Amino acid sequence: MSICPMQAIAVDTTSNRAQVNRDECVECYACYNGMSMERLNPTIIRSIRSLLKLFRLRFDPEPDVCPTSAITPEELSWPRVVRRAFSDPVVTHESTGVHGRGTEEVKTNDVTNRVGVGEVGYVVEFGRPTIGVRFREIEKMTMALSRIGIEFEAKNPVTHMMSDRRTGKLRDDVLDEKILSAIVEFKTTVAEMPVVLRRVEEVAKTLDTVVAVGVSTRCDDRGDSALDSILVDEGFSFVRGKTNLGLGSLCLRERSARSAG
Amino acid sequence: MTNTLHRYGSAESFSDDYIVFAIPARGINDSGAVEKQRRFLEIALKHNPINIGDASHGSALRSSKDLNPVVHWRRDSNRNFTAVLNSIANPTTVAAVFDKPENVVAFLKELKQANIGLSINISGDLEKARTCARSAGIERHSVEYSLGFFGQTDRMADRQTLELSTMCGHGMVSFGLARKLREWVRQGRRSPEQAATTMARFCSCGVFNTTRACRLLKKD
User: In angstroms, what is the C-alpha Rg of chain A?
Assistant: First the structure.
């Protein structure tokens, strides 16, 4: 079925029924959450389809409608439940209290000041877009990064999966679990950025997935970023990004000024 | 969520793509966030967004669990903005998508004045976002750059499919669905608008840009 991001649903030619490949399924719930449903009788629907097939006719239904509401959520247990936590965007990560991939990154930097002037925040994302990744592949990157002295962001769902944060080792019981995507976060000084990005590029080539990389920093009073020229010098091109407007801190500043007054 | 950071496309392809979102910092300014988020979306609605969404509960275009079979001939593609406003129930990320920079500027001016107390970000072309912010009298605080994709990029889809599929960064718009709908538009089985709306229903955060999708599908 085309709607499955992992292409894990296909019609089994023996039983003539759609089957889910459980090893490839990442429990993203795109099939359940994204598809609309009609709640029609399965026997009637199959009979109509068989008749149309007999005459080589094809109905042209909406591609995002399940006529028989055949997909129902399953009760997941450990470690399979990890798949859903990292793949279904409406689920909140228990470790961080944030939904989606469970990270605030630079989006709240005006309030948290997590990435300061002279620092670089990194978001190294695995499995995106729509390729998927097993934790075993993510571990290769986290262990490689730890060898160059990286300290991982504590408020991050992947960090919570680590059995040893110093070495970047992930829990053994989740290594074979496949997920839609996950983000590893950390920060360094601006001077360290070229070395770190080169390491990420090198390791990414050895992984059986795609790695998307983002870097962030705090701007100066004129809104300029120290990273522009360094990234260009290092051969990176960039067009798109996120711009934090600092309006959250505006409110906090006013509140603290009032309480001080 | 870096749901909107790594959209695929050239600078030109982002000319009508501006996502403005509000997010509370957990444990710092998340008390009363529900009301603040609702206020953010109420202000956004005055400035003609093409989509809005609450990352926990869905967008203005969403799936239905109780359709009538007539839907295959008469599908309702209206955006239900009220449903989004009414469903906000917990601190989350709320987003509004715009296709015109002048609407973004007007929205930012009003947001600045309202001072709702949440972090506000623009996701899009960095230079265009900075221009919009400055037009509204705001200098950016922090910036995050998308440096693109590395590793086994040969496993990714073709450019046109990626431009559509990556508009849901959570991966809910599969390569297969984007390819199928591109094909259906080329065959005249669906209009670009219908195809864009179908894809948007899978994006629960409400950040799928239907204007950009239509433009890309027409050009395809």
Answer: 23
